[in-house]
Known about the structure:
- By secondary structure, the protein is an alpha/beta fold.
- It is built from 13 helices and 16 strands.
- The chain is globular.
- The protein starts with 6 loop residues before the first strand and ends with a strand.
- The mean pLDDT is 96.
Amino acid sequence: MTRRPAVAVTGLGVRCAAGATPAALWESLVQGRTATSLHTFDDEGTVVYPACPMAGFDPAGYLSPKEVRRADRSVQLAVCAAVDAVADAGGLEVEPGRRAVVTGTGYGGVISQENGIGRPDVLYAPRLMHNAGAYWISARLGITGPSLTVSTACASGTHAVGEAMQMIRAGCADVVVAGGHDSPLTPTTALAFGRAGAMVTECADPAAASRPFDIGRQGFVLAEGAAFLVLERLDLAHARGARIYATLTGYGRTSDAHHLTAPHPDGAGARACMEQALADAGTTAEAVTYVNAHGTGTELNDIAEAQAIAALFGPRRVPVTAPKSVTGHGLGLAGALEAVITAWSVREGLAPPTACLTRLDPRCELDVVTGEPRKIPNGPVISNSFAFGGHNACVVLDSPHG
Length: 402
């Protein structure tokens, strides 16, 4: 049997409300500085909810004015984050046919879609298509190998990272630019999630609106952004002297097959996904040093995920962080953003705190990190994404130094 190649994380790039660089994002996380504020979703000012918009975003220097007109805001964010990730990695030092790109998005070009209803121009279709980000990134970075877009709601970003790892393992590519992007801050999207009871619409303190695992949670906070990682064969990364944030060692994906929007109540699908990812990584639950939770701040998700984590690792036996308390929930972006956060955690040996958690829901028997970052030893860490449609995705990262 041919030994599958190990996979390194050598580049990171982000654009989100909590930071325009991985370092700035990390600083927001360790300080517990939330990115949530009251946001006006419509021109008339009738839809005003807590959200995490990226203020002052400007794609100049990454896209020409003509290209900006041809690309939805979600894609503009994606190009900037992907190009930054490649620069952080020191470039893509393999021939174009051995490069690949995998993008994840839940909503595609939803801003362009809403703006063009009833009055579409000639670029309407290419602006809103889900694979537009993959096209723009491949064209910008000279990627002529595999190009793939995954859309599994809030698991899209994690699925993108996991499928990218599988491409390298299968020998389809030597380096993959993988990540997620979404810019869903439209009035229709906000009204839909608000009326469904999934999203925070009213909060005494907007900055504390995202409260995963807290007894006073009211739902998730909608966010926008993009996050990308450069994954490459570990041997090639070593050969060129690349800086390695972490190794990507395991990937799991399961389906609840239970309900269109609600997770399986006992977290069975989530637990199976984590178990699959750990088995793929060749490790066990006992070895895991830290869990990056999906942690949306919705009651059903929080309780189901907490039950899955407690059942697999034991109640309060592994440190848990919910970054959405700081970043908000970027839908198809979320898993990729949290893969970036998890890779940085591995490098720093720290689990960042969960912000805004004042009273842990007693139904969530977890050791949630709060207040200050917590030191974690070298060892496997797991990052979870559990989405509408019952789509579950988990990735395992580890220190490159063992």
